[in-house]
Structures are given as structure tokens and as C-alpha cells.
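Entry for C2E complex. Fields follow.
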Amino acid sequence: MRAQVETTLRGPESYSLARRVVDEMQAANVWPTPVNFELWLHYLGDPEGPLGREIQRLLAADEPFTDAMSDMLAAEYLPRGRLSEEIRDAGRVLDRELASVADAISKAHQSQSAYGDTLADASAGIERVENPDGLKTLVTTLTTATLKVQNENAALEKKLETSTREVAKLREHLEQVRRDAMTDALTNLANRKAFDEHLSAACEAEDADSKALTLAVIDIDHFKRFNDTWGHQTGDQVLRYVASVLARVARHPRMAARYGGEEFAMIFPSESAGTVEAALNAVRHEIASRALRRRSTNDELGAVTISAGFAQRKRGESASALLERADAALYVSKRNGRNQVTAADVLDKAA
Ligand code: C2E
């Protein structure tokens, strides 16, 4: 479908699609920033695709299109496009470097074989040298040929050094691109894509070594109400604050991610249910006890609380089933009054 949008953008309907994008963004009160434009282009070009459906859901829920929201959607739904562009660019640089190294090697090869011919000629000619002048000419020819080969070797060496540096820069750049594609821009935590990959790798690792694996989902209580009262910029700061507390707790091998709007997730490999519960409760206490202030006015924002649910993976359980159980436990925390942590096995026993 992405390819279909790209094709439309280079065809007769491109301008009408672009105009429709601007009209629809205006109708929905969305700023025509480059990121929003790209998002809406893909949404209108493919309304039934995953991005299209998500934007329709947000519009139906009357969710505002803050910069943070746009960044998250872009990170979630557009990175592959960006990534492949960066990868294409990297491919072009590599092609160029390889072609120029191959060219330098072929030149060096030619001059080496020319030098070989010169030496063979000299060795045949030495028999025919009759006087010192003849010998002098022969030595001059050999010296010139040797110098030429030395210069060409030095040039090849330099070319190889430059190419090695270019390739190292490229590798660093690609590493950065890969990190960006896996990071949530607002909170700097891992994004959902990175989380999903990490979770399935953790499940595989658990299958191999059968150590415990626990998944927690964490949600900020009444976040929508908070956003409506204090505005989205302050809402974004709260997301950053909760993320900063989670990041401190999620030292390797634990892992924390922003999973959706105000939802976070954590993976705890090889830990007992008791330690996980204690860690989540420590996070919950820390967040609830901090008095946040609105930076622009210094207004006291009141307490922000979180609810959490966690589940320990059953043998062979799929990542989505594990997530579902952790979500169900989170739901119980919400239903029982929020600002609490619930273990899924409590529900399992009750059932
Ligand atoms: P930030 O504004 O970039 O702040 C990064 C870190 O700098 C904070 O990490 C904290 O260690 C320190 N810091 C910044 N401003 C102050 C300050 O006025 N007083 C003190 N004591 N330390 C300060 P921390 O606490 O983990 O917060 C992470 C992020 O959460 C902050 O990033 C900000 O975006 C948000 N945040 C935290 N507390 C508040 C708050 O009271 N009001 C607002 N609006 N945002 C907050």
C-alpha cells in the first residue's frame, strides 16, 4: 500500500491528493507540519491501512494531534519508509566507494604489469648495453618506472584509507538511524516496535533456558482528564516524567518502552513475581509522591498516579497471550480504583 501511495504521488492524481490532504488537515484542526503532512498523505492514500485505521480511531476518540502524537505515529508507522531511504543512500555511498577502490586496484594492477614489462625489457636490454650512456639510459628508465609504481601504490593506499573512513562513518550513521527507528522521540524510551521485537526475542530466550519472564503494562491514571485540564504540553511533560522514572528502574536486562499514548510496558527477564511486584510498587510510590509543577505558570499539577498489571509467562505462551493477561491485570487495577499493581496469577487463581 505504501508503494501505491508513492506511485500516486508521481502520477496524475498527485496534486489533487496533496490538496485533499491540506483540506482534511485543516478540517481536523491539524497543523500542516511536514510530519503531519506525510502522515495524512499516507492516511488518505490508504485509509484502510494500519496508519489510516489508527488516525481514524484517534479522530473518532477526539484525540488531539499534538507534536508528540505525530512523532509517535511517524515512529510507529513511517520508519520503514525512512529507514529504507537511508539504506538506499547508504547503498549508493557503498557502491561509489567500492567502484573507486576497484578502479584504484585495477590501475595499480595495470601499472604493476607495465612495470613487469619494463623490468623484462631491461633485463633483455642489459645484454645489449655497449657503453656507459646506454647503461645510464637503462637505469633512468628503471628508476622512472619504479617511482611511478611507488606513487601509484601510495595513491592506492590513500584511497583505501579514505574509503575505510567513509565506510566507518556510514556504519555509525546507520547505527544512529537504527537507534532512532527504535526510540520514542518524546520520552527517549524504546518504542513499540523495539518493544515487540525485544519481547519476542525474550520469549525465545526463555524457551531456550526456561528462566522466568515477566511482562508488565503500566498506564497513567486519568491522563486524558489531565491533558484536558492542563494542556498537551504539560501532558507531554508528564509522559516524560513517568518515562524517566521507568528508565531508572529498567536497567539491563530489564527493558522499558512507551507502548502507546500513555501506556508503557516493561520486560523483566529472570525475576520472581515478588521482585517484579516490588519494583512496580516502588515506581508507583515514587510517581505518586512527586509534586509536579506546570513549568509555564508554576501551578501545582496535583498527584499523577499510575496503574500496572503484570503476568509471568507460562511455558510456551505466545507474546500476544502474555500481553493480553498483563492487560487484563492492568484493567483490574483500574477497576479497583487505580494507583495499584495487580498480578495476573491472582486472576488466574480466581478463575
Ligand atoms: P527535563 O525538564 O528535561 O529535566 C531533566 C532532569 O533535570 C529532571 O529529571 C531533573 O533531574 C532535572 N530538573 C529539571 N528541572 C528541574 C527542577 O526545576 N528542579 C529539580 N530539582 N530538578 C530539575 P526528572 O525529574 O526525572 O524529570 C524528567 C522529565 O520529566 C523532565 O525533563 C520534564 O520533562 C518532566 N518533569 C519532571 N518534573 C516535572 C515538573 O515538576 N513539571 C513539569 N512540567 N515537568 C516535569
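NOTE: The two ends are 43 Å apart (CA to CA).
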